[in-house]
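Hey, weird one. I pasted the BMP family ABC transporter substrate-binding protein sequence into the form twice and got a warning about non-standard characters only the second time. First submission, copied straight from the form history:
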Amino acid sequence: MRKIIAGAALAALATACSANTGGTAASSSGGTSVPGKGSAAVGFIFVGPKDDYGYNQAAYQGSQAVAKAFPQLKVLTAENVPEDDNAARVMNSMIAKGAKIVFATSYGHLDAALKVAAEHPDVVVVQQGNLITGTTPRNAGTFFGTVYEPVYLAGIAAGKATKTGKLGYVYAFPISQTIDNIDAFELGAQSVNPSVRTFAVSTSSWCDPAKQAEAAANLLEQGVDVITQHQDCTATVVKATEAAGKMTVGYHADASSIAPKGWLTGSEWNWGPLYSDIVRTALDGGFTGSKYNGNFRVGYKTGDNPFVQSAYGPAVGAETRSLIEAAKEKLKTGSPFAGPVRDQEGKVRVPDGTIPDYETIEKIDYFVQGVVGSLPKS
């Protein structure tokens, strides 16, 4: 895998102490000394719990893959770290305990990550999922995978499975990643079912089971028979959809065990290889560059994507699987957003014959034609 992001070489590794990092839950693994360098640590902060059937569970599993790949390192973890100054406090606590590499894994951790990187030039600080613009510390960077690609493929499964032509999308906030996923899901469904529509409902929270249950009920009442989501914790929506006898497309982690009848497929993160490469690059002193101006992205085009498509459920037949596999091959040189792409008002946003690059896609701020719902006016 290519060298990652922009930054400075690591200084000598300091001594790691205990794993009490100041989050509401913390743990450690590893801890064997690096020969000639003393004991060393790498830290991970998560915005939610490590067993949420979703975003934080996948990130935690990635941290444990690092522990396995680098038994000489102590891996510090902290759950339920808010997207505010507490994030900087927890990261600083990890650094005080010897962390020379810190992963801030939530979208809203960016400001805290950049602040900590500026205060500790000998520590590599990477943030998961955002975009850095302007002048930033050389020891900081962002990374993410083009998850809207497997979401597009999952949209094909949904488009083929729906009997009402109505799909549902429960999302948290209208950030670029969420909008990309909603649009890609609808475009995938449209590719096999042109009349299909995706009804998007916001919970204004990454993990609020009560709001999630309300959103799912609202969609089901409208005749939606396939529901997916962009929430950190996914169990509530999956269980509600399964209980109603409808179909589910998963996100972040495998939740097929709680939807044995209605599970179609989904998009799961497999962060271990990418996390490990970032750690290896930093330890080797090679944290020295990326063509994405500090924003590192991997996907089907790069061949080293950190996500996997979930296993198929019983409702996905051979024809649908063949369509998905054919679309996956096209994504290696193409894009879910290959033109023409129109917004809800019918305006052409991506011209015919155009394949937008990753950075352009992450700046999309509109719903595509076929999505039902509105975005806040800026």
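That's the output from the first submission. The warning seems to come from a hidden character in my clipboard, not from the data itself. The first helix runs from residue 55 to 69.
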